[in-house]
Specification:
Layout (H helix, E strand, L loop, with lengths): L1 E2 L6 E2 L4 E3 L7 E5 H14 L1 H12 L2 H17 L1 H16 L15 E3 L10 E3 L1 H12 L1
Antiparallel strand pairs: 1-2, 3-4, 5-6
Amino acid sequence: MKTCFKCLVQKPMEDFYKHVAMADGRLGKCKDCTKRDVNEHRLKNLEAIRAYDNRRSAQPHRVAARVVNTKEYRAAFPKRAKANAKVSRAVRAGLLKKQPCWVCGGDAVAHHPDYDRPLDVVWLCQPHHKQAHALVTE
C-alpha cells in the first residue's frame, strides 16, 4: 500500500505508475491523479502540445514507420482496408453523409458490421466503436 501525495488516499501499489527513480519503484502520485493532471495540462497548453505533436509526427523515421504500418495493415486486413477506402471516397464525393454517433450523438467514424457491404455503415464515436469491436472479438 502507498499514499498518494496529491489526494492523500492510501491505495494498492498497482494504482501507481512504475518509476525507476523512486525508492519503491513507483511514482508518488496515483494513476487517477496523474491522469487528471496530464489532462488539465493538455487542455491549458493545447495549441503548444498540438504543435509539438505535429512536429514529432513529421519526423522522417515516424513517417517511414507509418508507411510500413499502413502496408502491413492493408496486407493483413484487405477487406477492411477496401471498405474503409470506399467509405472515405463516398463521403468525399457526397454519396455518403457523415452522421453523429447513434449512441451518444458525438463526433463519429464509420463502423462496418459487415465488410462485404462497405457502404452499409453505422456511425459511432471512437469509444463506442472500440466497444463494438470488443463485442465481436469476445
